[in-house]
């Protein structure tokens, strides 16, 4: 089951497993009070969240990652994302009022996409993580066996014809469609 938490400009998703939950993306730094309010409105407690996963490391997707880790939520870091974890640090450093907490990747659980199915199964989530690099080299999608698919900032498939030469986008959608998704969840489309 996927629950959309909307408390800023970026959709955050909570995926409930049988023995723990997975949070996918957060909003910008400084949104922690609104995040707590959204959890409460959806009857989710912080202790329900076992892992946090970012679809990619742009500032509007990882603003709360460091704070979540301090709360005991484990960061699930995909190996292709390791070089991008601090991409947003300089952006957040420009605004001291945000009180951004940088990610400490030494406390992250680093796995490959190939290992994702086994790792997700540990918290009772049936699915896998795949790379989708047309938006950014660190972008991933979460594809659940029930047909739900969280794609972050991937351009919608309806826009494919607008991108004549974007073979990477076409390849990403082909990879996703091979999993026969039933519902696509985007980060910025309601």
Describe this structure in words.
The chain has helices at residues 32-41, 59-62, 65-70, 89-93, 113-121, 167-177; strands at 2-5, 12-17, 20-24, 49-53, 74-78, 109-111, 127-131, 140-144, 148-152, 183-186. The two termini are 17 Å apart. It has six helices and ten strands, in the order βββαβααβαβαβββαβ. It has a six-stranded mixed β-sheet with strand order 1-2-3-4-5-6. It has a four-stranded mixed β-sheet with strand order 7-8-9-10. With 190 residues, the chain is of the alpha/beta class.
Topology diagram in text:
Blueprint lengths: L1 E4 L6 E6 L2 E5 L7 H10 L7 E5 L5 H4 L2 H6 L3 E5 L10 H5 L15 E3 L1 H9 L5 E5 L8 E5 L3 E5 L14 H11 L5 E4 L4
Give a brief rundown of this model.
It contains six helices and ten strands. It has 190 residues and is α/β, with parallel strands linked by helices. The strands form two sheets. It has a six-stranded mixed β-sheet.
Total count of strands: 10
C-alpha-based Rg, rounded: 16 Å
Question: Taking all residues together, what is the mean pLDDT?
Answer: 95
Task: Tell me the strand order in the biggest sheet.
Answer: 1-2-3-4-5-6
Described by strand count, sense and barrel closure, the largest sheet is: 6 strands, mixed
Task: Quickly give the structural class.
Answer: alpha/beta
Q: How are helices and strands ordered from N to C?
A: EEEHEHHEHEHEEEHE
Distance between the termini: 17 Å
């Amino acid at each position: 089951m996927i629950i959309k938490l909307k408390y800023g400009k970026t959709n955050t998703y909570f995926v409930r497993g049988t023995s723990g939950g997975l949070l996918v993306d957060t909003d910008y730094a400084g949104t922690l009070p609104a995040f707590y309010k959204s959890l409460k409105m959806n009857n989710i407690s912080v202790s329900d969240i076992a892992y946090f996963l970012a679809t990619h490391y742009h500032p509007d997707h990882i603003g709360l990652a460091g704070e979540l880790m301090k709360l005991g939520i484990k960061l699930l870091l995909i190996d292709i994302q390791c070089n991008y974890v601090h991409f947003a640090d300089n952006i957040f450093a420009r605004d001291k009022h945000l009180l951004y907490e940088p990610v400490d990747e030494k406390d992250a659980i680093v796995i490959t996409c190939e290992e994702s199915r086994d790792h997700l199964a540990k918290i009772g989530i049936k699915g896998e993580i795949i790379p989708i690099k047309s938006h950014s080299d660190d972008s991933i999608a979460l594809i659940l066996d029930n047909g739900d698919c969280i794609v972050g900032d991937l351009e919608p498939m309806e826009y494919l014809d607008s991108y004549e030469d974007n073979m990477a986008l076409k390849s990403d959608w082909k990879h996703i469609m091979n999993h026969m998704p039933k519902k696509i969840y985007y980060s910025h489309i309601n």
